[in-house]
Design goal:
By secondary structure, the protein is an alpha+beta fold. The protein is built from ten helices and eight strands. A hairpin with a 2-residue loop joins strand 3 and strand 4. The N and C termini lie far apart (40 Å).
Length: 250
Amino acid sequence: MVKSAERALALLDFIAEQGQVRFQEVVDFGIPKSSAHGLLHTMVESGWLDYSEQTRYYKLGLHAWQIGHSYDGHRGLVDAASEAMDILVSRLGETVQLARLEGIENVYIAIRESPHPMRMASSVGMRLHAHATGIGKALLSTLSDSEVDTRLSAVALPRLTENTVTEVDEILRIVDRVRHLGFAVDDEEFIAGCRCVAVPLVSEDETGVAAALSVTMPFQRTDASWPHAFYPPLQEARSMIRKAMGLAPT
């Protein structure tokens, strides 16, 4: 790793997460004052960051936006899933999300929102802990047990609700069950009052990107048929998407 490049990339991630930061926040983030001035100046001059003399805040710059919009690594997947996601929302009336796996996080790459006023607030680009979400566990199921173990054991897994499972051995058992059942669930494990059913779509071996599809809804809109009633329409959507990508439907 090149230390200066590592710092610049980490700083971009930090500012993207915070929205805007002042100089002292950059120092508190872990970049020494002696390096922070030069690094920030370079990133502003190159367009990666914007700086306001009035507010003294740093924000992501135009160049970051341009680079982000030029990325199309999952564009084919998003296009292939578009019609199936529209059908799912129309059929189920709940939020449908498409995500890919990055490390131990699921990153949303397409969303169709529920028509109901009460729904999960999510956005494209949002990153969530895979161990605590249905779509994340569906994504982990596309990996080998050894790879899941390696990724999860390398970090401290946060307990987000009283239902969150953080023990790696137990998560491995859950992921193995996902492989056998064909779907994963989030039963108030990421957010209290929120449930999710998800299916894996493609693995990294197939397309270079591990991806999964989910339906998310408030606990109040579920009944005794949850989660099994959501699996058939998700499976149909999965087959439709894989067919659109030129892959075997199941």
